Every structure is written in C-alpha cells, then in structure tokens.
Amino acid sequence: MNYAELALMLFQAAALILISPLVAGIIRKLKAMMQNRVGASIFQPYRDLMKLFRKETVVSENASFLFRAIPLVCITSMVLLAAMTPFIYSGVAAPYADVIAMVYIFTMFRFAMVLGGLEGGSAFGGMGSSREAMMSVLIEPALLISIMTLSAMTGAGFDISEISSSIIGAGAAAISPALLLAGTSFLITMVAENTRVPFDNPDTHLELTMVHEGMLLEYSGKGLAFMELASMLRLTIFMALLGTLFFPWGTAVTMAPSALALSVVAIAIKMLVIAFGIALLESTIAKMRVFRMPNMLTASFALSLMAMISLYVL
Amino acid sequence: MDILSVQLQDGALAALFFVAVFLPAVSGITLGMLFRSNRVANVVASLCIVSCMAGASTYFLWSAGVDLSYTLPLPSAAGQYILSIDQLSAAMISFSSVIFMLIVVHVVKSTSDSGCKYSALLNALFLACFSCMAADTALVLLMSWEMVTLVTFLLSRNGDNERARWLFFVIAHIGGLILICAFVYISSVAGTQVLSQWRNLGPTLGDLTSTALVLMIILGFGSKLGLIPFHAWMPDLYASAPIHTTALLSTVCSNVAILVLVKSIFSYIGVSPSMSWAAFAVIALAAATALWGAMESLVQKEPKKILAYSSMENMALVVLCLSLGMVYIGESPVLAKLILIAAVLHTMNHAVFKSLMLMTIDTVEDCTGETNIGKMGGLSKTLPILSMVAIVGVISMAAIPPTNGFVSEWLMIQSIMGADLESTGMSILMPLALAAVGICGMMMAASYARLYAFVFLGRPRSEGMKKPRPMKKGTILPMAVLALLCLGMGFFATVFMDVLTSGIEAVTGIPSDPGYRSVMSGEMLPLLLGITITVVLALLMWIFRKEKRKERKTRTWGCGERLDSNMQYSSIGFSQPLVKVFHPFYGDTSVVKESENKENKTLVMEFSEPFVKYLYKPVSAIVSILSERMGKIQTGNIQTYFGYMLVTLVVALLAVRLL
C-alpha cells in the first residue's frame, strides 16, 4: 500500500463518516415526502448531533465504567469498518480488512450495545438487549454466510479489496444464483441489522415493541451523540457494502481520476436508490410483531445458506 | 546450554529435568498425606507451583535441543515406563503448566482451609497430566489418564455432591474403558508399546479396524470433553465441585485429551481416505454437541453451569476441527495443517479464558454467597477491578476482536472456507459447518453477554450482592495474568501459531513447505487489528475524556417510579425470546409447582437435561432391574456356589475343547 492508496483509504473512511448523517437525513426527508409532510431539512441530523455534543451528560447511578466506554467502543468499531469499506476505489481497504474481521467487528458493536442496554438496570434497556440478542443469533450467521459466499464466489478470498473488481471483471457471468441469493439475504440483513421497519421502528421511543431505541434510552449528551452517529454510520456502511460488493458495477477499479469521479456518481446513485427503497418500505409496511421477526430472519439465513450451497453444488 | 551439555553426560540434563518436575510434586504428595495443618497445605501447594515452573520450562529446554526422554529403570510385565517429549507435547506441557500454576496460586490465595489433602491431590493431578502428555508407552499413557480421572474424582468432593461426582466417575470410566480397549488392541497389532514407534499403523490395522479405532479414541476422550451423550456429568459437576477442580478439569485435562487425540488420530493410526464417513459422523456429532451446548448455556440459572455448557461447546468446536482435518488431509494437507493449528490454538485459548472466568465466578460466589444468577447484579460498582478482569474474559469467550478467542474462531472459519473439495458430498458439508460455527458463536456471545450483564451490571438483586465482602488479597493476581494472556495471545497469535505449526508438522508428517499461510486467503494481521482498535479507542477516549463539569449522576429513568431491585430485566427474561424461537429444542419448559399445603400454584421455568431424563435414567433403571434379578442366584449357600463352580468349569472345558 503506497501513500496515495493510504490517503484514499483515509479519505473514504472520512467521507463515509461525514456523509452518514446526510444519508439518515435524506431517508427521513424521502419518508416525509412520501407521507405528504414537508419534513425537516436533510441536514437536520448534523444539527441534532451538534446539539447533543454540546449538552451535559446524565449518567445513571447504577451504571459502571463500561457505560462511558460503550459509546466509544461502538464508534470505534464503526470507524474501523468505515476504513475497510472500499466504496469509491475498490482496490483499497484497511490492511487488517478481511471479511471475517468485518463480521466480528459488527459483533463487537452489538455486544457492546447489548451490555449497554443492561447497564442502568432499566426494564426498557433490558428488553431491547434481550430482543437484540435474539435477533443477532439469527442475523449474524446470515451476514457471515452471505459475505463468505461472495468471497468464495469471486475467488477473492477474504480480501475485501478484491471482491468488487473480480465481480466486475467477470461481467454478466457474475450474476449467478449465488450472488442473487446472497444479495437478497444481505438486503434483509441490512434492514434487520439497522433496526428499520419492519423489524423495528427507529422513530419510536417508549413502545414495548422497540429494540434499538430501548437500548439507547439511558444515554445522553455526548454518549447519545456517539451512539446515534454509530447507528447512522452502520446504515451507511451497509448501504455502501451492498453497493460495492454485491452490485459493484460503476465502482472504480483503477485509480484514474475519471474512474474515481464516475465511481462517486455511481455510489451516490446506488445509495439514493437504497435510501428510496428503505423510505418506501417504511412508509408502506407496518412493523412486525416481535415473534414474527424470527420467520423473516430465518428466511434470510436460509437464503444465505442456499447461496453458499448453490455455489458448491451447481 | 552449550556449557551445560558439555558438563553433563548424555541424558543427564533430561534426568535433571524430570527430577525437577517430579521431586517437588512427589514430596508434596507425601507431605500432604502425612500432615493436616493449613501451614503445611500452603507448603504442599508451593511445591506444586515449583513443579509447574519446571514443567513450564519444557518448551525452552526442547528448543535448546535437549533430548527430553527418560526410561524408568523399572521392569514391568506390561511394558516399559518411558517418557519422551516431542515439540507439540513440549509446547502443550509448558502452556498447561502455566495455567496449572496460575490455578494453584489462586487456590493458595483464595482458600484459607483447602487442607493438605486437596493440595496433595493437586500435586498428583499435575503429575498425572504431565506424564500423560509426556507418555511414550501405552502403559504410561493409560495409567496416567486413569490417574487423571481418579484424582479429579477425588478432588471434586465437596460435601453433598456424591451423585454428580459418581456420574462423572462412571462416564469417565466408560470412556477410559474404550480407550484401554483401543490402545491395547493397537499395541498388540503394532508389536510394540512404544508410542513414538507407532507411525501410520492404518495400513497394518486394516481400513475398517483403523476407522473403528479412531472412532473409539474420539469417543473415549470425548467422554471427558463432553461430547453428546457423555456431557451429562458436566453441568452438575461444574456446579457442585470446588471451582479449582473444575477449572483444572476443563482446561488442563482438556488440553491433555486434545493433545493425545491429535497424536493418536494423525500420527499413531494415520488417516486414510476410507475414514471420511467416520469423519462425517464425528462432524455431525460435534456440531450437534456445540449447538446443544450453546442453546443450553443460554438458559442456565447458575453461572458455573453456563460455563460448563460453554466448555462443552468450545471442546465440540475443537473436535469439529479435528474431524474436518481428517477430511482435509487426503485432499489438501496444508489445509489440514491449518485446521489442526486452529484446533490446538483454540484449546489453548479456551484454557486461558475458561480458567479466568471460573476464577471470577468463584470470587463472585465467595464474596457474595450467591450462586443463582437471578439474584446477582450490580457487582461492577462494588468490585470494579474484578469486573474489569471479567469483561476481558467475557469478550474473549465471545470472540470479539482483538482477543484470543477471536483469533482462533477466525482461524476456524478461515480453514473451513479454505476447503476446495472435489466431491460434492464433501463440499455441501462446508457451508453447513460454517453455519454451525456461526450460529454457535452468536448464541454463545448472547450467553456470555447475559453472564456478564446479570452478574456485574444493573442493580443488585439480593443482600449479598449489595454489600459483597472484599476480595481476598492476591486472588486478583492470577486472574489479571490470565486477562493479560487473553489479550496477549490475541495480539501475538502468530507467534503461537508458528510454534504449533512445526509441532503439528512433526506429528502429522505434513511437509513444512508450503506453509499454512499459503492456504489462508486473507491477510491475517491480528496485531495490526488489535493495535488499530486500541489506538482509535484510546484516541477517542483522550479527545472526549470526562469533563466533570458536564456530567451529572441521577437515578435510572423509570417512568417516574423509583425502581427497586426487582424492577429490571431478569436473566430468565433475557433469554426468553431465544427460548421461544428455538422452542422445539428446549421442549416444554414451564412447570406448574404446587406449594406444600396445596393452596398456591406457581409457574416456574425449568430446563432439564433431556439426555439424563431419556437416556441415563432408563438405562440405569434397566441395569438395576437386571442386577436385582441377578441377585436371586446369590443364595449365600456354600453348596450352591460349589454347584456354580462345577457348571462353570464344565462349560469352560467344553468351550476350550470345541473351539
């Protein structure tokens, strides 16, 4: 890895971190427009985060040292992932980046969140953590297998930076049952991981149905800002991964300026399409009952397993 | 070393080494048998520590080129007593000795009245484990394995736990019996007892026989490792035996079992292509065991039982790797090498984090007097240092980077994914193995989050948890060392892998070229990953360090209510959604219990081990009925017995004549 690539990697990571509130803002705006509302500006999430960073922190007296560390652990894991998401130039990802590490860093994020939910000894946090644990048992294997399918399919091994270029290189032949199945599984996983409708509602507070927001209830000030930023970043990373790994056409495979410019436009369009899809889903579908979720998640798991099996049997 | 070897005669250094290992321990056993006082108990335990230190030096002596073998000048009808240490054993002995030593340090620091007998038995267990790993004749191996069983059985005595430990005794002996049959048969065919001369006996034994022998050996050691259905002893014994016994049983004894297992399968017998169906059977068994362990650990009420099922899951993953290695070795020896490294490394990592967690839970129970996780909580406020050590153990068990648990799980997935197997039957296996590892990993992570959260987080749920006694002085020391090992073995995993590689190459006969890295499709850089995580986290912590002015403490928000200790999520409630999702496996868990005066009925959640209910109990019932029937021929009348003798004699003579 030379200096130009290192600079590009850091730029990609910084770009992901910086645009993630914008992505959240765009989804909210799209939803508002679909629901005939004016909605807040797409830059509102930035303002929210700035406000939270300035506010005082209120900590539960039951919380331990871990409570203060968890937002930082969460944001750290997402920063690490941002550095290993090659969404502009496919050939560069953080040197520690391999797909197994990626899945386990997601696990690290979840683990920290689950512990954080149980910190204050509040019933809401416990409920959120408990449900998150249930979902993660079904989501994470699906994530692992769908990404593994990708790496096995392309022969790229576990190197993230080689996956997209080898799919692009294969041309139309790359559109195989394995890719489609794994992509579908990843899509469901994306919606579930990011606790969007129909799995969870990111807009509610204090409902017995909530998962993610329940775990955030005890955070305030900077801690909350970090947790919010980490969630937004997680969604953006997932969208970028879907756009670069599962549908990589348009992503730059060389470092030529024209290719990079095209790639920026391509990923912007892909992310907008995904954002539109999420907004459409959230405006048209109701949230599922908690114990209906396993059916959907098991479907995602089965799809990924089928993708993997089809790769080896077909 | 040069000076030493010049001054000492051939083999003298080895003899010195064995004296350094055996003498302190043997004198420890003697002292412990003779005396009773607590002061002597500490001396006895210290002698064990000295022996462990000598044991820990094994690998360094081996790498200095000392020939570590010794023949006891004692003739025996059943064979010779030879100890000989190769590279893999040396690494395992050194590592296990360190773990053993830390556990003994914890014994000394934590228990004021462990007694001379307990300490003497610790010495005996160390010797048994050492000689089992160093054994070079089947006689020594079987004798010391039997010693391991017997000593752990004696060590696990703890007041009122006769049932649990006898169950362990019986199951371990079923395994031991299988092993004795297997090893005696092999030595009769091989014509020698010396294990280092057993090399690839498969062709001599014949395909079917060697497959059967491999299965027998796996099941034999599986009885200690907790493979289904042998796992029935684990939860009860873990819950009732002294914690240091279970710590030794689940770490050092498992290390011994895995080491001998690797050597028996891949070196003594050797893997032939015809064994693949047996390997499939073992893979299925191991995957089932791992899933069962993961599921059951989620619902246990006692932290020790959670750890028992976690041991079962971890060891099942190791056996899964070994059996995958049996499949791989014919197709791609390098990949087999990688998966064996993964298996042995995971065994070692398991020893570190499991002994750490068992000690932590022991400290918790000792300080608070609670054994039920439902009554725990809030300890991280009162015992902050313990909770910091515990969180390291927990994240390492849950395979969160950058800990050692993550590295070995990484290696497992790597070697499962690396498989490029020709025949379809094998390739369909790989995604399924991956799925099993993935699901187990996540379930265990949920279970460990539950373990940590309901012991250390939230509000205390009982009086003992509110005001725990302070920890005993010095108990934190071995735990802190283990926590550092958890991190260190994660950061510097490649060092351990390189050490294991040449050992495994020597045992299996896989050529050292190409190296294991050639089949790894990713760049494995645990050190870089660990450093990156640490640096980013430290940087963020430094930038956003706590500003007192901007922080306020208040009660947890409870909708305007003042939350009491029961108004928080319970540990049973936490795993309830998962129980609901996987309900076919748990069976009917809610039981209605009547109170004694039959006025009140309460609904309780109970998870009973179905293997005990549907397998062990019926079998033991049949056995007792049969033995009752058999009892009728025991009349106590001497004439009848003469009659029996006569009949036996006649039958025996006829049989000899006719056959």
Shape of chain B: globular
Largest sheet of chain B: 2 strands, antiparallel
Major sheet description of chain A:
none
Q: What's the count of strands of chain A?
A: 1
Helix content bin of chain B:
over 70%
Portion of residues in beta strands of chain B equals under 5%
- Oligomeric status: heterodimer
Tally of domains of chain A: 1
Helix content of chain A: over 70%
Order of SSEs of chain A? HHEHHHHHHHHH
Largest interface: A-B, 75 and 80 residues
State the helix count of chain B. 29
* Uncertain stretches of 5 or more adjacent residues of chain B: 1-7
- List the strand order in the largest sheet of chain B: 1-2
Average of the residue pLDDT scores of chain B: 88
- Alpha-carbon Rg of chain A, integer: 19 Å
Q: Mean pLDDT score of chain A, rounded?
A: 88
Walk me through this protein's architecture.
- The complex is a heterodimer of chains A (314) and B (659).
- Chain A is mainly alpha-helical and 314 residues long.
- Chain A starts with a helix and ends with a helix.
- Chain A has helices spanning 3-34, 44-54, 65-83, 99-117, 123-154, 160-170, 177-193, 212-216, 221-246, 257-284, 293-313, and one strand spanning 57-60.
- Chain A has one domain.
- Chain B has a domain at 610-658.
- Chain B is 71% helix and 3% strand.
- Chain B has helices at residues 2-7, 12-34, 38-56, 58-63, 87-110, 115-134, 138-155, 162-190, 202-205, 207-225, 233-240, 243-250, 252-269, 276-297, 303-331, 333-368, 379-382, 384-397, 404-417, 424-427, 429-456, 463-466, 476-491, 493-508, 526-543, 571-581, 583-586, 610-631, 638-658, and strands at residues 69-71, 82-84, 551-554, 590-594, 601-605.
- Chain B has a two-stranded antiparallel ribbon with strand order 1-2.
- The termini of chain B are far apart.
- At the A-B interface, strand 1, helix 3, helix 4, helix 5 and helix 11 of A face helix 18, helix 19, helix 21, helix 25 and strand 3 of B.
